[in-house]
């Protein structure tokens, strides 16, 4: 299957890798189908590309790369989604990354309170909100390296 993207032009994806977000992404209503792909030039970042909107692609990253002590209780979210027979190894955790460019403001931040959880077993995902947390939605990942 081929899709159009603003950043990468036309790319070929495996239709079996399409990720469904029935509740969509907060702030982006109506966009429910995505694909997660890696660009070797962007590692360790990856892209969460909307299939409905070529201009919508989020930069994401595994939070454990820069914050090994990151904790999230996935049991609550698995139960709320009805993801039966789902094991921890079936769940992929990503955080949305913001890259600020500028002469005075070069930062890369991660939204640690709103991770995206992908169930690799059924190709469904949800963005969750971690409440009662000391995490930030603008965690500076450059301070972690």
Automatic annotation (TrEMBL):
Recorded superkingdom: Bacteria
Keywords linked to the UniProt accession: Bacterial flagellum biogenesis, Cell projection, Chaperone, Cilium, Cytoplasm, Flagellum, Translation regulation
Subcellular compartments: Cytoplasm
Keyword Oxidoreductase: no
One GO BP annotation of this record: bacterial-type flagellum assembly
Pfam families to which the protein is assigned, alphabetical: FliW (PF02623)
Signal sequence, start to end: none
HAMAP family: FliW
Function statement: Acts as an anti-CsrA protein, binds CsrA and prevents it from repressing translation of its target genes, one of which is flagellin. Binds to flagellin and participates in the assembly of the flagellum.
Entry similarity comment: Belongs to the FliW family.
Protein name (database record): Flagellar assembly factor FliW
UniProt organism field: Desulfobacula phenolica
Name of the coding gene: fliW
């Amino acid at each position: 299957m081929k899709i159009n993207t603003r950043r990468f032009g036309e790319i070929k994806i495996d239709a079996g890798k399409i990720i469904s977000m029935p509740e969509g992404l907060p702030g982006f209503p109506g966009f429910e189908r995505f694909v997660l792909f890696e660009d070797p030039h962007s590692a360790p970042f990856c892209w969460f590309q909307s299939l409905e909107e070529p201009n919508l692609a989020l930069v994401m990253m595994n939070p454990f790369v820069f914050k090994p002590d990151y904790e999230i209780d996935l049991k609550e979210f698995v139960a709320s989604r009805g993801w039966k027979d789902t094991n921890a190894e079936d769940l992929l955790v990503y955080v949305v990354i913001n890259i600020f460019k500028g002469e005075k403001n070069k930062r890369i931040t991660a939204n640690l309170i709103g991770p995206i959880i992908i169930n690799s077993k059924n190709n469904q995902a949800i963005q969750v909100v971690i409440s009662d947390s000391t995490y930030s939605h603008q965690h500076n990942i450059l301070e972690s390296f």
